[in-house]
Amino acid sequence: MHFYTYDGSFEGLLTVVFEAYERKAWPDQIGREGEAPPGIFATHLFVPTDEAKAKRVWEGLGRKLSKEAWENVYKTYLWEQPGFEMLIFRFARLVFSSQQKGVEENFADACVQKIAAIGKQMFREKHRMEAFIRFQRTQDGLFLAPISPDFNVLPLIITHFEKRYADQPWLIYDVRRQYGAYYDLEQVSLVSLEEAPRGLRQGQLSPDILTEVEPLYQQLWQTYFDHVNIPERKNKKLHLLHMPKRYWKYLTEKKPRQQAHQPIQNKQVPTELRQLNP
Amino acid sequence: MQTSLVEKLSILADSAKYDVSCSSSGGKRKNEGKGLGNAEGMGICHSYTEDGRCVSLLKILLTNFCIFDCAYCVSRKSNDVKRAAFTVQEVVDLTINFYRRNYIEGLFLSSGIFKNADYTMERLVRVAKKLRKEHNFNGYIHLKTIPGASEELVKEAGLYADRLSVNIELPTEQSLQSLAPEKNFTEVLTPMGHIKDQLVLVKEEKKLFKSTPSFAPAGQSTQLIVGATAESDRQILTLADGLYQNYQLKRVYYSGYVPVVTDSRLPILSTPPIIRENRLYQADWLVRLYGFGVNELVDEQNPQLDLQIDPKLAWALRNRHVFPLEINTAEYELILRVPGIGIKSAKKIVAARRFAHLTWEHLRQIGVVLKRAKYFITCGGRSLETREWDEEAIRRRIIFGEKGSRANLWGSQLDLFQQAG
Fold first, then answer.
1. pTM above the 0.95 mark?
2. B81 chain-A contacts, CB cut-off 8 A
């Protein structure tokens, strides 16, 4: 039984695929450097990352896959759930061994189906981040947003925010994985903060580092959120389905109100109804 | 005392919320030259209200002062409510600042009609122009076209807006006359026609000259209020279909009537007709994307959509002679018509069967809702059901489950009636 380890990078994992082919010794398990082997009889091999080998595997996959399926391989790496390495290996092997093009559409194969499902899951989480990120403006003009997504989607959302907020400096910080993407009006770089600004982890930056108008805009957004709701149509289940509670901690509209919401009395509901629902 | 910004926003968001459109897709507006915003991709719902509706745009009225007195409208002249008005600059600032914090995809600006149509429309256009020209804003802008506004203003609006919409509100001229006496069909359809002509013209010109300025690249839409007047689903869907075909609308929105004002001409509803609204949307999608004709979903004998089951299932039950389909050989267009199979599943089925003979397990993995689909398909010539069920039985089993204990049945029935209102 063969147990491969790598340094945890995507390139490292692709190098494992290369080495396995080189040796014709198919892995039974792949793990991060330092991970304990699955049993005493396993042959353990640490594979150092090799950019050139990784590139050959990556481009090899690209030649045989649609763009979407190709990206799904990388997304499976960012998915980070147990067993993702073997999944990628099995998929790569399936792709390389198939004569026919378009093997990524063979949804009758469990591995193909799983990778497609992960692609969908990752897309959903990425899309949620694009929707639920809330920037708070600090005194030095930085727009700062904490996130803690279920999967490591930060690398997937950078382009979206780069295109959208080209004229403001911003930092999106993954507090769970402790790294962020920082845009300085020129380019985006990945950063890691030694000391996070006060309140970042809790989702509400400390008032003394915020710009003066920030609390007003947060209040205005809360006001808007409260008033755009139609109480007669209340549907808590649907609300929670679209906006699961685990995302609330960074959502401005879900934070405590400075002033309680006061409904506008602009309706003259028929008297018969008022008696029905007092 | 001047009304505070917070209070203005409360009033003017509150009066705008009955307009259900919130789409922010199809804009194709790219951020060029390091400006603010980008609307080239798919729409994004940034939040969801407690009623489960998407919040994508800052949807507000410029003002709720109005010279009209439409019975269904919360801003009607005779309604004794607080009135407020934003300045052009206030709307611009709110939009920019909300957008910068990633609260919204853009602005959906509508307005009560003050003074006259052109005076109002001119201000709406000014907001959009300022956002585009002075703030280099590339987010999404949806402008409401005020009925009766001049063609020139509508044309100018289309230069800055991604989407324009004119609300029909009531499905027949007769209803319109009774509830909104100052409006008429012609006044609504005329600007819709102008927008359509302009859309067609710009599309043609773009073929010749790439530099032709865009005109409302996300097209136009409209809204119909459902349940305030007596029209049948058939009348509503037929009208919508005509609008899609003759005016090339991107979307028709259906807004279940929420009682907001007392008026002897209006029905008394304890809850808005939410299920009916949902069925209309389902039917609308079937017509636009699944290749169904309106007359297949509703006809003279069945002018109303079934509230208990979705229109696709209802059609399948009425047309059992089409089924069962063999999933390994049936045409894509027919697979689309199977209850429990959506567009994505249908595409996956057609793709996957090139590689393997599909089994029930494959279908489950692909995401087919077998609970519904199994009555209408076979896999390798075999059915999942050992016996033949009649229409009533299938209907019952899908709505109430297959166990069918009496208590269970009652429970779900009560629940359903409650929902149906």
1. no
2. 264-266
